[in-house]
Amino acid sequence: MAREEGPPAGRLSETAEHYLEAIYYIAHEGDAVRPSGLADWLGVSAPTVTVTLHRLARDGWLEVSAGRDVVLTPAGAAAAAAIVRRHRILERWLVDVLGLDWAAADREASLLAHGASELVTGRLDEQAGRPRTCPHGNPIPGRAEPPGGLVRLDRLEPGRRAVVSRISEVAEHEAPQLLRRLGELGLTPGSGVEVRAPGVPVAVEVGGHPVNLEVQAARAVWVAVED
């Protein structure tokens, strides 16, 4: 008997969820998703990624092109969005209700998200006031669209005023200490910022205060340029 088309029923394994979540984050930064990048992101070997991607492709969650690009299927994209939604709601609740700083909240949400049920997530969402974004400004899937027309802070023209919109998920994953550093500097969503002089480091003004910002940190910040 031929196997029915489409992903299997039931909850995804934690490993599968980690893969779909990573693919979602990388793709939503506008980057191509490759097996090598997933290996770096997940901290596993290239052969392990190859085997897991083959299984996820077999089950209908993603496709791997001849050029090795990894793309989620509609079912995979829906599943990934649900995972990211849980993670971002948990982050919001941990920050707004429990009072954790956003770096600690990101770490704790990563531990909790894959075990949280939709019932619990829904209740936490209500307690947090049904937010539209996570504390870092990234939209909660199904509730807010990704903002358009943003530029990275390291590419902002000197003298132009801008408002911090969001922090890159990829950058915060690659260097978690960036979240704490940006929080300490006040580079949070809604903050006004201006590049005073490009270079290494980037000279910026945040809330009227001069700051020398590492290029890696500046690349993690996406801003909306004011007219």
Provide a brief overview of the structure.
Helices cover 44% and strands 16% of the residues. The protein has 227 residues and is of the alpha+beta class.
Features:
single chain, 227 residues, alpha+beta, two-stranded antiparallel sheet, 9 helices
Q: How would you characterize the largest beta sheet?
A: 6 strands, antiparallel
Class by alpha and beta content? alpha+beta
Radius of gyration: 19 Å
- Total number of helices: 9
Kindly report how far apart the N and C termini lie: 62 Å
Mean pLDDT: 87
Strand order of the largest sheet: 3-8-4-5-6-7
Order of SSEs? HHHEEHHHEEHHEEEHE
Strand content: 15-25%
| Overall 3D form | globular
Q: Can you tell me about this structure?
A:
- The chain is an alpha+beta fold and 227 residues long.
- The protein has helices spanning 14-28, 35-42, 46-58, 74-96, 102-112, 118-127, 169-174, 177-185, 215-219; strands at residues 62-64, 70-72, 151-152, 161-167, 192-197, 202-206, 209-213, 221-225.
- Strand 5 and strand 6 form a beta hairpin.
- Helix 1 (14-28) crosses helix 4 (74-96) and helix 2 (35-42) crosses helix 3.
